[in-house]
Design goal:
With 579 residues, this protein is α+β, with helices and mostly antiparallel strands. It has helices at 34-60, 74-87, 135-148, 153-161, 172-178, 212-224, 274-286, 295-298, 326-331, 343-356, 389-402, 427-430, 437-444, 452-460, 476-479, 535-539, 564-573; strands at 92-99, 105-111, 122-127, 162-167, 198-199, 204-205, 228-234, 238-239, 248-249, 259-260, 334-340, 373-377, 380-383, 407-412, 418-424, 466-470, 487-493, 499-505, 508-509, 517-523, 526-533, 543-551. The chain folds into three domains: 1-52, no CATH class; 74-356, Aminopeptidase (3-Layer(aba) Sandwich); 373-551, no CATH class. Strands 1-2-4-3-7-11-10 form a seven-stranded mixed β-sheet, with helices on both faces.
């Protein structure tokens, strides 16, 4: 029998033993490297199969990025604005409010029901100051225009109740040509270069000659003084090489995590009322989109200079000043910002914001955004005055720009059944304020239009020990100018249905009136008391003193005593008094 070779089952190589003659058992030689090599080969074969399987599955997944997003041209943009204005002449007006460094027009769209007077309408401003690379902010505004011009009940109501101003493209060259944030001089209309480029004392931008785009935005804010300003941001352009062109473009399916209410880089850019942010978030939920809530979702506290050693445990955002905050600083406009991954989400959230302006806000007696409280002191508020939105806007702006010079005071400690609120709107009036109540009452003697005896009777009937005062900070030459607007004063009584016993202004009784007198209603756990002072009475009174005596609708006590058993044990343990 000729020699033959057979593979050894225990080796990777043929067995060296011939099979001539009786077959002897094959000696197993165990090499230490054999097992690892087998394992690697097995895994390699398995991984290759898994990779092939993964590639098969991935190939079946939707791949929207092979389709680009249409980029509108300046010609298409202008033609569309003209088409909308032609189609909706009673709802939409298009105005050129400036031009870029290169001379490209910057447009403002004004949407409102032209058949109704503007006097009682709120003003909302919607911009995309970061438009350019962040294209979904601009495209959301264009979708929002179509929604506002549509027939949905919310859109119709918004047009009837508000003037909506929209600036979809503030930086035309960035949007149509360069795809970069800055203008021809490198100035970004959104940040404006930060606080260093502003004179914050006079609220003027230092380089308007190099930034006509910012000048156009500021002109709109100065003209309309809106109640609310929403700035829309979104998806930045990314390189995607569908072919050899490799140009910068948005592709379908590109998105970002969506943010509502503020900016990661500047946490000062946000509504002062978190409930406004939540209303926008909820509107996004209803449309099927979630929102990031900054420090709330990250569960981190705010940073401040004194807390720098703890910076790694605090929210990454920092307070800053951007162009978008101009409207707040100058006119007490409520601000908000949105990051938008999908335009439908952006429209839903902005519509949720606009819905707030169509009705009375929580705790307020009139329709509109919550912007009318312009000063505060220990739970008391100086408010705008006026029976219409336009009059409240004038009052809000005038009071806001002077509020730093107003001095405020209340009788202290605060006492159940009694409330006071004093506002000195000039430095002359502030000089009459004195922490010593008796000295203050003496200073009131001879003050025109003031019933000093009635004020004295109120002060002396209570247990308060002093007048707590917060003094204004502005210059006398600025504070003592005439003030041609009405004022409101808000008290909050901590009962559901107290009986007002004596509500007076400068010692004189007040009647119920939304214009010249007082209003009351229950909201937010308080009986709200609003005192309304028309312009003529404000002009005649540099020091305004509200006194309120009320009877609570329930008896409340506070304090604590130990259990009777404890009192008894203490008595038993005490020695009897000696005779």
């Amino acid at each position: 029998m000729s020699e033959a070779w057979r593979p050894c089952p225990n080796s990777l190589r043929p067995c060296a033993r011939p099979t001539v003659g009786p077959r002897a058992p094959c000696r197993i030689v165990r090499l230490p490297w054999i097992a690892p090599v087998l394992a690697v080969l097995a895994v390699a074969g398995s991984s290759a199969g898994e990779e092939d399987d993964l590639k098969t599955h991935l190939a079946k997944m939707p791949q929207p990025w092979h389709q680009r997003v249409h980029r509108i041209t300046s010609e298409q943009y202008e033609a569309t604005l003209g088409f909308w204005a032609e189609k909706h002449p009673s709802l939409l007006a298009v105005e050129t409010v400036g031009a870029s460094v290169e001379g490209t027009p910057i447009y403002l769209l004004k949407i409102s029901d032209g058949g109704l007077p503007d006097a009682d309408k709120q003003v909302a401003l919607i911009t995309a100051l970061h438009g350019g690379p962040e294209r979904s902010g601009t495209s959301t505004i264009l979708h929002l225009v179509e929604w506002l011009l549509g027939d949905s009940p919310d859109a119709v109501r918004t047009r009837r109740k508000q003037i909506v101003l929209l600036m979809p493209i503030v930086n035309p060259e960035a949007y149509f040509v360069t795809d970069r944030f800055g203008n021809a001089h490198g100035i970004d209309p959104y940040t404006g270069g930060g606080a260093a480029n502003w004179d914050l004392e006079t609220m003027t931008y230092k380089h308007l000659d190099k930034s006509p785009e910012i000048a156009a935005f500021l002109a709109v804010v100065d003209k309309y003084r809106p109640e609310v300003h929403a700035d829309l941001h979104g998806i930045g352009l990314q390189e995607y090489r569908e072919d050899q062109l490799g140009d910068r473009t948005m592709y379908q399916g590109q998105t970002m995590f969506e943010v509502t209410g503020s900016a990661y880089s500047n946490y000062a850019l946000r509504p002062w009322d978190w409930r406004v942010t939540e209303a926008m978030v909820e509107a996004g939920w209803e449309a099927g989109y979630g929102s990031d809530r900054f420090e709330a979702d990250a569960q981190r506290g705010f940073w401040g200079p004194a807390m720098q050693p703890l910076a790694d445990r605090l929210w990454v955002g920092r307070p800053n000043f951007y162009t978008a905050q101009y409207a707040y600083a100058k006119y007490h406009t409520m601000l908000t910002a949105l990051e938008i991954g999908w335009e439908r989400s952006g429209v839903a959230r902005v519509a949720g914001l606009l819905r707030i302006g169509n009705g009375p806000w929580q705790g307020e007696p009139v329709e509109g955004y919550p912007v009318n409280r312009v000063h505060s002191y220990i739970g008391h508020f100086l408010t705008a005055w006026g029976p219409t939105a336009a009059e409240r806007r004038r009052s809000r702006v005038a009071l806001w720009q002077r509020q730093a010079g107003f001095s405020q005071a209340v009788l202290y400690p605060q006492t159940d059944g009694r409330d006071t609120y004093l506002v000195a709107r000039t430095t002359r009036a502030a000089e009459r304020l004195d922490a010593d109540s008796a000295a203050f009452l003496a200073n009131l003697e001879g003050l025109p239009g003031t019933n000093v005896e009635a004020i004295r009777a109120f002060f002396e009937s209570g247990p308060e020990v002093k007048l707590a005062i917060h003094r204004g900070t502005s210059r006398p030459d600025a504070d003592d100018r005439p003030l041609a607007c009405g004022m409101g004063f808000r008290l909050r009584l901590p009962y559901r249905n107290p009986r007002l016993h004596a509500l007076r202004l400068n010692g004189h009784p007040l009647a119920e009136s939304p214009v010249d007198g007082y209003q009351t209603w229950f909201a937010d756990g308080f009986t709200q008391v609003q005192i309304n002072v028309p312009p003529d009475k404000v002009a005649a009174s540099e020091l305004l003193i509200v006194t309120c005596a009320y009877v609570p609708d329930e008896k409340r006590t506070y304090g604590w005593e130990p259990p009777p058993e404890v009192v008894g044990r203490i008595r038993q343990a005490s020695p009897l008094p000696s005779n």
